[in-house]
Amino acid sequence: MKKRRYILLLVLVTLVAPLLVPVGARNLEPAIEQSLASLKPDYLNIGEIKLKRFTQKGNRLTVEMNDEFAYLPFRDELVKQAYDTVRAVLPSKLRHKKLTISAGGYEISRLVPFADPHKRFTVACHRPIVEPVDRLYTPSHGLLNRHIALWQSHGYYFEQSLNRWEWQRARIFGTVEDLFTQSFVMPFLTPMLQNAGAYIFSPRERDTNPHERIADNNDASTYAETTSGKEKWQRGGVGFAHRAEVYTQSQNPFTEGSFRQTKTTTDPHRAIRACWQVPVPERGRYAVYVAYRTVKGSTDDALYTVYHRGGKSQFRVNQTMGGGTWIYLGHFDFDPGEMARVELSNLSREKGRIVTADAVKIGGGYGNIARRMNDKHPACNPAVDYEAQTSGYPRFTEAARYWLQWAGFPESVYSPSRGENDYTDDFKCRGVWVNYLAGGSSVLPDSTGLHVPVDLAFAFHSDAGTTPNDSTIGSLGIYFTGKDRKVYLHDVPRQVSRYLTDLVLSQITDDLHRTCAPQWSRRGMWNKSYFEARVPEVPTMLLELLSHQNLADMRYGLDPRFRFLVARAVYKGILKFIAFQNGFDYVVQPLPVTHLRSEFTGTNRMQLAWRPTTDPLEPTAVPERYIVYTRVGDGAFDAGTLVTDTTWTRTIHPDSIYSFKVTAVNRGGESFPSETLSLCRSSREKGVVVVINAFDRISGPDSFEADSLVGGFDTRKDFGVPYLCDIAFTGEQYEFRRNRPWLDDDNPGFGASRADRETQVIAGNTFDYPALHGRSIVRAGYSFVSTSDEAVAEGLTDLTRYRLADLILGKEKQVTLGNDTGRYDFKTFDPMLRKAIARYCHNGGNLFVSGAYVATDLWDNGTPDPEAQQFANRVLHYTWRTGQASTSGRVQPTPSPFARFNHLDLNYWNTLNATCYAAESPDGIEPCGAGSYTIQRYDDTRIGAGIFYRGDTYSTCVLGYPFETIVSDTERDALMQAILSTFDEAAGSDTPSNNTH
């Protein structure tokens, strides 16, 4: 199709041009300009393409275009089109002459990615800085042994002129750029790159956990050593010590203590260990970092073991690089009161090398760098005694400048201004940090640094700008080739940074066009001297993804589905760039599996099954094998089991709840995990309940626009559903008038938002609710299995095997993605699911349903769905009364024929918190038809919150709020007991069917 359009265009230009352009150079320039401008795709928002000059010299014709023309995504086909279209408008007497078309200082064929295959930025690294010991897969065609420097825009910083801490950007649409870009990088892009085998360096704290604990060899209460014969640890040189609670400008904690060292051994019987341990303050997931020193003769395979709730994880750390800072090992689950323990062994594959031991850090914590008004600052009043102040914010919110100081980097790296300007320090320190990481390595052998062979650097920003209409600003890429700095090491042209920029921008644009945003704009590829692009001595790109000030852009930007798509596109662009630079064929990691389902296959046996997902955007993203992760009881997931089939069986023990999630793997890496399903065989089994997990939704908040006068996001009505958690919300939007201009970051006009939530991590969809429902089911005396709603809808799960079912709808409701009104996801009851449930109920199955939009999604969500309404009325026997039925978060019983509910007062999460997603707009529902009764009402409005229907052949219970949001375990257990027992009574027996398989 593209070739046909090209031929038609060429024929048209050839036929029409002679009529429009007389022979002679004077009138050629407009025709050349017009012909080349016609090559710009409609989605490319780059400004006007202009001809700078057209010259004829002897047998040579030169066409020099402006920089905007260089922003086109040149490929071989487009280069040929450009030359053919220009020749088509030339008079016949000029067409035989040698023609050169250039833009941005380069002949346009040099703008094609990898135009010069002989000049590549190759990086050889046989041992990365961190390598898991028991990796179940090897991403040989991914990013194995690659090191990437990655950062996300700005951060909370100290403003000297105002003597206060503040954001570098304004709070707009419920977020701020300093946090917004983190919502792409931390939960999506970084894990994708890590799953492909890369090690990611970040100049900002990557752990959102507010607790931080330090264990150090200088503190005997947190550190111990073992010896074996003559093998022992000895004092090394200068190292880390946590001497102060607060650090000022020039203090470096990595120069205030010491480290320990010993020689490596290959004999397990002579191995000795260093051990760090600290008490865990609160149950949760913590990042674990280690610190050591790189010395002459350092080992490249120091063996670290992290003991955590899921068991133990081991890593080989290459201590020939990265010494003197915090080196991230991973995130791990810990219980409160237990000792988080990390061990380092001197056991190695090579004898006589040096292994060093310094400190361990778990958790992210709060910022501990204190700043004060600099005496040299013009705003400083000599009569005022300015006190140094910390930010009071979690460290992950702070600017890079402060993390780099806490992480031991020299002052020349984290503060180029020497403490006079934290704003400029923050954006300047990142490029300097990249070079310090790479200093002394093969990438920068003549520089001082940490000896890390960095493959590339990537900065993730969101740009400023708005449009008066509802159109997107789109994406922009920035790189720098330099007027006097044209090459990297080994004479590799800095033009490779343009190739990186082009690949990533093209991947983003193509993927968004094919999935959710067909009109997404691609802006320019600026070759400009931005500090973050100019300073790093490795290929570097700055991405300005979208405008955080533009409503149309942020309708996409606040949606986790969009964040996943963009992050995956960036990861693919980086992968393709590194693959070509280093001469290997790439494979893209698979997408998550779907249609997960579990069942009992015997008294003590179970089976898990799933389907792989085909990626229509990437033919190489094909699963080859799978990893099943298992959690028993209230523990953590294990290290996984590698399987080759799409089914997996195992033996289970009675009364233990088993939970499972599955990932797909190939030579490119590992996918994101599936939802989590659970099951349990109760030793006092009254029956088996099938739990159907239909809560798949992740989305941004409700948005609206009225006549171009007002618009924005109504987070009070529907906050949306974050993926796992939200780390970027500052507070609700309060300025909805579109004509309100930006005056200052403190008064940003349209979109202005509050600041009461910006230090909080807000719970989202964990995809792990069958276990929570299952605990209450087991306590009521029943066994349970679980399945995805897709497996039910497509008949992969046979519901007729179970007389009791629990359908989890959570905050499921039909939503669009951005401005794509042709795409609707997360319908509560789609036709296939309705059909399966109706068949189940009419065959005698009893169904419990709970969800915040269980009725609103059928009656008051865009276009009404009469068939779905009839399903609710006639099969489940409830009807809609109202949405947003309560703001109290409390439910009270109301008299009904079902006595077990008469004394159940409940509290559910209805406001944003870190524990459970909030049901801020629960549904008001009423009974429908004979045998259906209201059993609960919201305590503030007295609107119906739940119904119970008893029919001749089956019963249903429907709640207008999600069961899993009930705050108390005791209240959840009591309600589940009442529901299941009343189902049994409705069946005319104290026990349901004896079908337990």
UniProtKB/TrEMBL annotation:
Keyword flag Protein transport: no
Q: How is this protein named in the record? A: Xanthan lyase
Q: Which InterPro entries match?
A: CBD-like_Golvesin-Xly, FN3_dom, FN3_sf, Ig-like_fold
The cross-references to SMART domains, in alphabetical order and at most eight, read: FN3
Organism encoding this protein: Barnesiella viscericola DSM 18177
**Keywords from the UniProt entry:** Lyase
Q: Which PROSITE patterns match?
A: FN3 (PS50853)
Matches recorded under SUPFAM superfamilies:
Fibronectin type III, Zn-dependent exopeptidases
Gene3D superfamilies assigned to the protein according to its UniProt record, in alphabetical order: Immunoglobulins (2.60.40.10), Zn-dependent exopeptidases (3.40.630.40)
In alphabetical order, the GO MF annotations are: lyase activity
State one Pfam family annotation. Golvesin_C
Q: Where is the Fibronectin type-III domain?
A: 592-685
